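Input.
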Amino acid sequence: MRSESTGAPRSIRMHDNDNVAIVANDGGLPAGTVFPDGLVLKDKVPQGHKVALRPIAQGEAILRYNVAIGHALRDIEKGSWVEESLVGMPPARELDNLPIATIRPDPLPPLEGYTFEGYRNPDGSVGTRNILAISTTVQCVSGVVEFAVKRIKDELLPKYPNVDDVVSLDHTYGCGVAIEAPGAEIPIRTLRNIAKNPNFGGRAMLVSLGCEKLQPGRLFPAGALPIRDVAGPDHVCLQDNAHVGFSSMIESIMDTAERHLMELNARRRETCPASDLVVGVQCGGSDAFSGVTANPAVGFASDLLVRAGAAVMFSEVTEVRDGIDQLTARAIDEATAEAMIREMAWYDEYLKRGGVDRSANTTPGNKKGGLANIVEKAMGSIIKSGTSPISGVLSPGEKLQQKGLIYAATPASDFICGTLQLAAGMNVHVFTTGRGTPYGLAAVPVVKVATRDDLARRWHDLMDINAGRIATGEATIPDVGWELFQFILDVASGRKKTWAEHWRLHNALALFNPAPVT
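Output.
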């Protein structure tokens, strides 16, 4: 990455072969601006948008990250604004003849001696928070459970100071769905595995209606912890004959919750190695700085976590699809590469059935922030995975069973991706943003990383880490990467809270359901 920063006008060129750079100055730069290297802007160029470093002929590749993010739809003069309408999107990379496990970097030394204070669970996993989770089988019970949770928080939670929160695992699934259809196993195993998240202490309680398609025994088959017995004291069924009136339902939920609160309250944090962390990384509201500042810093921190023995998940199929060759080359072996290819092929077919393609991913905000298309967005997204070998692949809704860098296949939707990473066992979430989003999750702490100084300044009480300092030259990628790594340890230990936790910001769970509704 090369940044022109000796004078007031600043541009950032990601690779020496690139024929475009992005304008780094807050507010952009006017036509006639002269850069230190003599480049003169022919147009006003907004912050984060591309400027041609040399003439680009019609049909010629437009290079950023040393990758053809598109081709020029007409001749582009040197110094011109390379705005979205001038960039033709290339076809998607074919899924055959890909490089397989060809990148074999020398292993970095283990990172030893780093710890955090966490809650050890019976299955060996570690929570970073101590939360009572109330699972539900169907949306029909959500209103009742919401009412009960409010009373639990008001009346019971203050009696149990070692419990951080009470959350209801609401969703829109459970009935009116083709529950035997291909693909139906994805939302079901997602709900099952969310209930097993390390932050819930190894057990959860369940509220069902009674007549729904997603019966408790299907959600939690015999022996599928954390429910001891779907017919036992962990389960409240609203249609049970024992319930007479609404108040009776609420009292049953509260009585069950109190038993769980007493158990959770007895738990204490203990010193755990950093290898017990399961960190999910994601980006949302991305801009052209995402691949310059925040995502590279997250990638650096990801490498530190992997060296410390932790698990790191990166996701978002659509946002890495155009870099599949980079990912298969980094696979630890052929089986891992083939698993990634299968996930990409499945998602290609899924989009095809919906009558859309990958171009539907980029949002108006992405484009306003300087991203011309999904190819450019993908190149910046992949960087947050760091440089470690990719040691495993998870399908949607599966639970993580290994350490290292893992590709967890999810849609690019912030909410669905976060939900699926929860199901995989994430205990800390890292979320980068350039445009800004108040996204949060109730079940895990969400660390927000801003791509730009301006966002960090304006959203000072929503962003936890300012990676925009990289673009201004005030900090390096390793500086911010180490800062993020230490902040993750502090947040995991409960020594610090994220801004999303401070304001209690969280989004509803969003299930990925490729099966038809009925």
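Residues 142 and 482 are 41 Å apart (CA to CA).
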